[in-house]
Amino acid sequence: MTSLPGGTDQGSSTAGHGPVVCARCGTHADGPEPVTWTCSVENGVRQYFCDTCSRENLRAIEGRLDSSWW
C-alpha cells in the first residue's frame, strides 16, 4: 500500500493499524483490507466506505464530493 501525498498515513485503518470501519455507517470489514470497499482521502485523512455506502453514493464519489456532502 502506498502512503498519502506528503508521506503521511495519518488516519488510515489498514492492517497493523486496527480494523477497517466504514466511515459512513460503521460497518466493520471482514478482513484487514477489503478489496471491494472504496478508499477516499479527505482533508489528508484516509477513509473507507463499505460496498453498500459506496453504491448508494456513487454519483457523489465520482463527482469528488467530500462525504460530508452526501
Poorly predicted segments: 1-15
Task: Give the strand order of the largest sheet, numbering strands 1, 2, ... along the chain.
Answer: 1-2
**What count of helical segments does DSSP give?**
2
Globally, the shape reads globular
Q: How far apart lie the N and C ends?
A: 27 Å
Percentage beta strand: 5-15%
Series of H and E elements: EEHH
Number of strands: 2
Number of domains: 1
Structural class, by secondary structure, is alpha+beta
Notes on the protein architecture:
This protein has 70 residues and is of the alpha+beta class. It has one domain (12-64). The chain is built from two helices and two strands. The chain has a two-stranded antiparallel ribbon. The longest helix is centred in the last third of the chain and has 6 residues, at 51-56. The radius of gyration is 12 Å and the shape is globular.
Layout of strands and helices, then pairs:
Layout: E1 38-42, E2 45-49, H1 51-56, H2 58-62
Antiparallel strand pairs: 1-2
Features:
70 residues, alpha+beta, two-stranded antiparallel sheet, 16% helix, Small CPxCG-related zinc finger protein
Short description:
The protein is α+β, with helices and mostly antiparallel strands and 70 residues long. The protein contains two helices and two strands, in the order ββαα. The chain has helices at residues 51-56, 58-62, and strands spanning 38-42, 45-49.
